[in-house]
Description:
This protein is of the alpha/beta class. The chain has a single domain (2-10, 21-155), classed as Rossmann fold. Helix content is 30%, strand content 21%. It contains five helices and eight strands; from the N terminus they run βαββαββαβαββα. The chain has helices spanning 25-38, 54-63, 84-97, 111-119, 152-155; strands spanning 2-7, 44-45, 47-50, 68-69, 72-74, 102-107, 133-138, 144-150. The chain has a six-stranded mixed sheet with strand order 5-3-6-1-7-8, sandwiched between helices. Strands 2-4 form a two-stranded parallel sheet. The protein is globular, with a radius of gyration of 15 Å. It starts with a strand and ends in a 15-residue tail after the last helix. It holds the Pfam family His_Phos_1. Keywords: Hydrolase. InterPro entries: His_Pase_superF_clade-1, His_PPase_superfam, Mito_Ser/Thr_phosphatase, SixA. This is Phosphohistidine phosphatase SixA.
Amino acid sequence: MNIFIMRHGQAAPEASTDALRPLTKQGKDEVCLMAQWLAPQVPKFDRVLVSPYLRTKETWQQVSKYISASEVESYDGLTPNADADMTASLLLAHGDLQPEANLLVVSHMPLVGFLVESLCPAIMAPIFVTSGIAKVSFGKGLGGVFDWLEGPHNIQSHYHGGFQGLRSLG
Length: 170
């Protein structure tokens, strides 16, 4: 099983509530860049779990332009300060049912970092940039392996044109 953990794209700094903060134009561009980079590695997700917040829903909308999913579900346990151990248990239970699955989780800091730590106890919680994606893999009878964490600032040099708004990322 492979679990891909993604932080939402850059969001507007203010809205009537934190849950209603939308993605900015740069946030949408970041997400599209990451989705284009990820698509050759994962042509389809078996399941996608998305936080109920607007910016994560919009993040999945952008990703879904490049990568399809068999099942998409909004999950209340993916808010910024949710319990990472509970979420990890849910993901592992899904993996027991579909051991070859590719799962995507779209959520927020600090949960995304703590989720990696919960799935891979030897790893300290990493810091995700906006639109950052981590991959954690599970082999038969093995615990979670932290494969990588990438963000738009690392991969943008591989893409020319179309992402001019991301120049400020490095």
